[in-house]
Amino acid sequence: MIGRLIFSTVACLLFWTVQAQADAPEQSAVTGEVRDRGHHDKVGATLWMETAEYDACARQAYLVATIMLDRALKDPTWTASTEQAEAGPGHETRPPAIILDVDETVLHNASYQAQLMRVGKEFDRESWNSWCRSLSSHAIVGARRFCIEAMDLGVTPFYLTNRRDEVRTSTLENLRRQGFPLPDNGVTLITNCGVTKTQRRAEIAEKYRILMLLGDNMADFTQASRSRPEDRVMAARQYATWWGTRWIILPNPVYGDWENSLYGFDVNLTNPQVHEVRFKSLKP
Ligand SMILES: [Mg+2]
Questions:
Q1: If you write DSSP's letter for every residue of 123-167 in order, what string do you get?
Q2: How far apart are CA 278 and CA 258, in angstroms?
Q3: What digits encode the pLDDT tens for the residues 37-90?
Q4: Are the C-beta atoms of 113 and 104 separated by less than 8 Å?
Q5: Domain presence at residue 6
Q6: Phi, psi of 156 (to 5 degrees)
Q7: φ and ψ of 108, to 5 deg
Q8: How far is the CA of 130 from the centre of ligand 1 (A)?
Q9: Residue 85 class from Cβ within 10 Å (0-12 exposed, 13-18 middle, 19+ buried)?
Q10: 137 lies in a domain?
Q11: How far is the centre of ligand 1, averaged over its atoms, from the C-alpha of 276 (Å)?
Q12: Is residue 153 a part of any domain in this protein?
């Protein structure tokens, strides 16, 4: 059954052809292509990702996830998928699954950001892919144990990432070395072949009952991520009862759609313009 969810090479090529732009919207959300401008603003955020406070947040998130997974399994109507919730009954008998984002959800990449800052460089695809191939990402505290416990309970973990297909093998190996369960030789690692996360989540939801979503960016939960900051807040509030129950979010002050939305998702702003927008965005 898992095998049917694999996105074929042909389909991937087709999607990349259709989506001719360099990055799908959610691609840049994950990789931080825009947000890496303005290193000074990111030093504190990157340092924070290595602190006891971050560590505690991650532990907290995965402890809550573990508790809620047990509750979710006992409730056959439970779903974390907006598609399944809107469709009504029908998903109850499907096998249970959880969907986890990869970067800054199960794998930690603050060292990549630090490397860029030390040499005064911006994000680029080459250095990011090189980082991915170095297998240097380490497991975020609590993530591995949660995934193993899910597997033990018969819940399939899907790793849904905007890392591209060219680093899929490396990502699989990185996850494997960090001890993450990879059922069926890792077919549940779904990389980016030009299809949005929302679309890929919907594909999984056709075959599985989605018990939980875990991520660090709104795009890991809802397509409403790519909107104005105030609209993003309203979209998050729409699902107020899902946060901490069906949706588990981890902190990421370094990059994400939260910042890109400040810039109106304009990838062409200069550094001075980025700083100006940031200051103007501060609430009085
Ligand atoms: Mg992420």
A1: --HHHHHHHHHTT--EEPTTHHHHHHHHHHTTPEEEEEEEEEGGG
A2: 12
A3: 555 678 999 999 999 999 999 999 999 999 999 999 999 999 999 988 888 888
A4: no
A5: no
A6: -85, 125
A7: -110, 130
A8: 18
A9: middle
A10: yes
A11: 26
A12: yes
Q: At residue 248, what are phi and psi to the nearest 5 degrees?
A: -115, 120
Domain of 133?
Answer: 36-281
Q: Please, what's the b/e burial string for 4-24 (b: 16 or more CB within 10 A of its CB; e: otherwise)?
A: ebebeeeebeebbeebeeebb
Model confidence pLDDT, tens digit, residues 96-128: 999 999 999 999 999 999 998 888 887 889 999
- Ligand 1 center to residue 31 CA distance, Å? 8
Structure tokens at 207: 């075959």
- Candidates 29, 40, 30, 33; CA nearest to 275 is 40
Condensed to tens digits (0 to 9), the pLDDT of residues 245-277 reads 999 999 999 999 999 999 999 988 888 888 889
**Upper half-sphere CA count for residue 208 (Cβ side, 13 Å):** 27
Among 256, 259, 260, 263, CA closest to 215: 256
Please report, for the domain that includes residue 261, its CATH number. Answer: 3.40.50.1000
Give me the number of domains the chain comprises.
Answer: 1
Tell me the C-alpha distance between 56 and 68, whole Å: 18
- Measured in angstroms, how far is the CA atom of residue 107 from the centroid of ligand 1? 9
Q: Around Cβ 139, how many Cβ atoms within 10 Å?
A: 19
Residue 218 CA to ligand 1 centre (angstroms):
9
pLDDT at 210: 97
Rounded to the nearest angstrom, the distance between the alpha carbon of 132 and the centre of ligand 1 is 14
Query: Which residues lie closer than 8 Å to 109 by C-beta, 6 or more apart?
Result: 103, 131, 137
Residue 29 lies inside a defined structural domain of this protein: no
Share of the chain above pLDDT 90, in %: 70
